[in-house]
Amino acid sequence: MDDFKSLIGKKELTISQAMRLIDKNTFGILFLVNEDMTLAGCITDGDIRRCLLSGGNMKDYAFEAANKNPKVAFTSDEAKALYHKKNYIVIPIIDKDGHIVDFFTGEADRRKKKNGFVNIPVVINAGGKGTRLDPFTRILPKPLIPVGDLPVIELIMQEFQSYGCNEFHIIVNYKKELMKAYFAENERSYNITWYDEEKPLGTGGGLSLLKGKLSSTFFFANCDALLTADYKEMVDFHKGNGNYITMICAHKNISIPYGVVETGAGGEIVNMKEKPLMSFLTNTGIYIVEPEIVESMADGEAVGFPDVVERQRLSGKKIAAFPVSENDWMDMGQISELEKMRAKLYGE
């Protein structure tokens, strides 16, 4: 059981606390227990997402969003049979009093299985200079910086391909000839249409180059972020809610390493928190977008896509956020994150 302590959390945990434990254990699930360590329920990253999308709060109790009747087994043979019967993540083994005595996690790869098929176009903004990755980007454009065996843009494209997305539209500017040469000589075959910026158009302005080219919902992504979440679930959410733009957002939990003090009139201390945890949603730079947005873009305007999102929101268009786990988001926009991304992808 010592190997599975990360799978167990107290029933009194908040959603934010439960999410941090789920991210650490990498199984995507947490089993909640009562004071006497009997099993009370389980909560997955999907349960948390559904709770937040329905108006829940990160400070709510995780048990409120949990499955109160999780599948359990009383022997390892029973757990094994149950595990293979359906696509379960982990099967807890309990005794007659409901105490968890062990877990069955499967014999091999426990990574999330991709079973969705999306098949919509993907637009990648790959025209920036990547100044945060200087001096690497003095030699290579950011999309071609390798993470392990492949450049980051190819890792991003392969993740989209795993969901049936094979039509790529890539906006380029800085060192664009290197980009085109890499894919021209690539032994893998990609269906790519290139769009050359004559001048830098920001993270959103390049979409104006695609007018008349897209007739369906599409992914729009920066070239420095890789998601390992469920793309089909994202698209289903976008279409099911009639969104014009869905921003994919990752939960971030940051511990402030100081005591935080709130003051009132005359400097009177009204509240103190020792090393508080801040939880919030942050933009991953990946969106699901309707083609009408492209047609509304002004030709040649340099604009960030978050500004485009805000304009559309203020005009009355339906804009929404789809939350994913911090563990499902890898951002290589900074040098310090490159090694973390490589280690996560290749387990080294």
SSE order and pairing:
Blueprint: E1 8-10, H1 15-25, E2 29-33, E3 39-44, H2 45-53, H3 76-85, E4 91-94, E5 100-104, E6 122-126, E7 146-147, E8 150-151, H4 152-161, E9 167-172, H5 176-184, E10 191-196, H6 202-205, E11 218-222, E12 225-227, H7 231-240, E13 245-255, E14 259-263, E15 269-274, E16 277-289, H8 291-295, H9 305-314, E17 319-324, E18 329-331, H10 335-346
Parallel strand pairs: 1-2, 6-9, 6-11, 9-10, 13-17
Antiparallel strand pairs: 2-3, 4-5, 7-8, 11-16, 12-18, 13-16, 14-15
Architecture overview:
This protein is α/β, with parallel strands linked by helices and 348 residues long. The chain is built from 10 helices and 18 strands. It folds into 2 domains: 2-104, CBS-domain (Roll), CATH 3.10.580.10; 122-346, Spore Coat Polysaccharide Biosynthesis Protein SpsA, Chain A. It has helices at residues 15-25, 45-53, 76-85, 152-161, 176-184, 202-205, 231-240, 291-295, 305-314, 335-346, and strands at residues 8-10, 29-33, 39-44, 91-94, 100-104, 122-126, 146-147, 150-151, 167-172, 191-196, 218-222, 225-227, 245-255, 259-263, 269-274, 277-289, 319-324, 329-331. The relative contact order is 0.13.
Q: TL;DR?
A:
The protein is of the alpha/beta class and 348 residues long.
Taking strands numbered 1, 2, ... along the chain, how are they ordered across the largest sheet?
10-9-6-11-16-13-17
Structural class computed from helices and strand pairing: alpha/beta
Mean pLDDT across all residues, rounded?
A: 87
Oligomer: single chain
Low-confidence stretches: 108-113
The CATH architecture classification of the largest domain is Alpha-Beta Complex
SSE string, helices as H and strands as E: EHEEHHEEEEEHEHEHEEHEEEEHHEEH
Strand content: 25-35%
